[in-house]
Amino acid sequence: SERRETIIAKLAQLSEWCRGDPSHELRKWRAVLLEDVLADLPRDPLSGMLALTEFWQGFGYPSDSPHLVQGKGNTVSPADYYREDNYERVVACHRAWLSREKAELQEDRE
Fold it and tell me: Which helix (H) or strand (E) holds 101?
């Protein structure tokens, strides 16, 4: 998307200024934004799953994403996908992924 390309271009420019790797800087930006999304997720499973899907869509559904989009490469039914227990599991997976991602980014910095 155009928005994604603009973000990547800005991050590349910023990483040049501090002699960083653009892909590494993008990972940091993604982690910060995901932290914000998780902090403000709606309690409603439908709205929450849509918010997570929109977030990952903005990054082009990267291969390392913990998010599973209903019907995209899977056979999960909408009834199962939007169930509260699935939503809770998905949010927990996102929190665990974010924790690992932040730890990896910290290790890379050292």
Answer: helix 84-109
